[in-house]
Amino acid sequence: GDSVTQTEGLVTLTEGLPVMLNCTYQSTYSPFLFWYVQHLNEAPKLLLKSFTDNKRPEHQGFHATLHKSSSSFHLQKSSAQLSDSALYYCALRNYGSSGNKLIFGIGTLLSVKP
Amino acid sequence: DTTVKQNPRYKLARVGKPVNLICSQTMNHDTMYWYQKKPNQAPKLLLFYYDKILNREADTFEKFQSSRPNNSFCSLYIGSAGLEYSAMYLCASSRGQGAGNTLYFGEGSRLIVV
Q1: What is the pLDDT of residues A4-39, one digit of tens each?
Q2: Model pLDDT, residue A1
Q3: Do B100 and A107 count as a contact with CB atoms less than 8 A apart?
Q4: Domain extents for chain A?
Q5: Which of B3, B101, B109, B110 to probe by mutation at the A interface, max A CB count within 10 Å?
Q6: What pLDDT sits at residue A96?
Q7: CB–CB of B105 and A49 under 8 A?
Q8: What integer is the mean pLDDT of A41-68?
């Protein structure tokens, strides 16, 4: 079945350094890929999404490129800010899959320190 | 307004007792979802309503019930809580079920069963 694999656990960075959170996926079909971000005590919110190979959507300084050849959708930012500290979920969703459900990875907790 | 509200935010329940979690949205979305999130696990879809049609995942079919009395509200009901139900329950809504459609999440209801 479809699945998403993310950088596991906690990623700790110093403010100003680049961010890269890994996401790879397995899917029978060609899916949409999403990044959701959840700040402490808040709801998960959409950060980015993509369906098109090699396109790079950007939002709030974050970007991610869907590479279908390597089944990857890594999240990047050139310079981490303290406010980027949050839980990041990579997720996929297929046209035509059972229930069209959004399938999540386990999440990566990003902690940015001064 | 893109708010999804969940009540209660925290629930302490005794083993064997029923639990009812409520979700509401004011975006006139036709689809509402319930996800379960346990520590060190990915959020897992339990069920969703498309309009008035309930779709339950096969592996949780008998464990959870739900109702949607109107477009704005959706409940998640556990008839007899067990320890394994302790988790964060996330409600979400979307307009339609297209694979690229954004899900809007609530802040979650944390259930602890003792």
Answers
A1: 999 878 999 999 999 999 999 998 888 999 999 999
A2: 83
A3: no
A4: 3-104
A5: B101
A6: 61
A7: no
A8: 92
Question: Nearest 5 degrees, angle CA B91-CA A30-CA A106?
Answer: 40
DSSP assignment of B28-62: --SEEEEEEE-TTS--EEEEEEETTEEEE-GGGTT
B100 vs A32: CB contact, 8 Å cut-off? yes
Q: List CB contacts (< 8 A) between A107 and chain B.
A: 42
Top-tier CATH class for A3-104? mainly beta
**A6 contact partners, CB below 8 Å, separation of at least 6:** A21, A22, A23, A88, A89, A90, A105, A106, A107, A108
Rounded distance between C-alpha atoms, residue A37 and residue A53, angstroms? 22
Q: Give residue B87's pLDDT.
A: 98
Mean pLDDT computed over every residue of chain A: 92
8 A C-beta contact, residue B80 and residue B17? yes
- Rounded average pLDDT per 10-residue block, chain B, 114 residues: 88 98 96 95 94 90 92 96 97 89 95 98
User: Is residue A2 within 8 Å of A26, Cβ to Cβ?
Assistant: yes
**Cβ–Cβ gap A49/B102 under 8 Å:** yes
Distance from CA of A82 to the nearest CA of B (A): 21
